[in-house]
Amino acid sequence: MTANVKQEQLRLGFLTAIEVPEKGFVGGLLVTNHQGRPLEFQCTVPVKANPTQEILYGPTLAPFILGELIGGTLVEKAGVKPQLILTDREQILELRNHIDRPVGLVEPTDNSAAGKA
Q1: How far apart are alpha carbons 11 and 36 in whole angstroms?
Q2: C-beta separation of 45 from 26 below 8 A
Q3: Which is nearest to 31 in space by CA: 47, 48, 50, 9?
Q4: Residue 10 contacts residue 34 (beta carbons within 8 Å)
Q5: In whole angstroms, what is the distance from residue 75 CA to residue 31 CA?
Q6: What is the pLDDT of residues 89-108, one digit of tens each?
Q7: Beta partners for residue 28, in sequence order
Q8: Residue 93 near residue 67, CB atoms below 8 Å
C-alpha cells in the first residue's frame, strides 16, 4: 500500500424511528466512522399510513413503513454509505430484504441486573 492510498475505515449506521402521535413515524440514520465520530445524519418527515393501507397491509404495515419506506429511503439517500447498520426496532429488520449490507438488531439490556452481585 502506498502512502497516497487511504485505508478504508469502517462506517457504522445507526437507524431508528419513533412514533409521533397523530403524525406517524419519523426515522433517523446516523453514520459514524470507526471511532464513533459522526459523518452524516439524515432524518425523514413523518410517515403515516392511511386507513386503506392499514387494512391492506395488516400486520406487515409496520415493517413496510419502518424497514422498506423509512429505512430504505434513508440508506439510499445517504451520501456516506454505512457498511453495517444497527437498529433498536425489530420491524426495521425488514430493511435486510431491500439492501445489500448487514442490518443487526441491538436489544436493550436490563441495567438493573448489572449492579447486582
Answers
A1: 9
A2: yes
A3: 9
A4: yes
A5: 10
A6: 999 999 999 999 999 999 98
A7: 16, 43
A8: yes
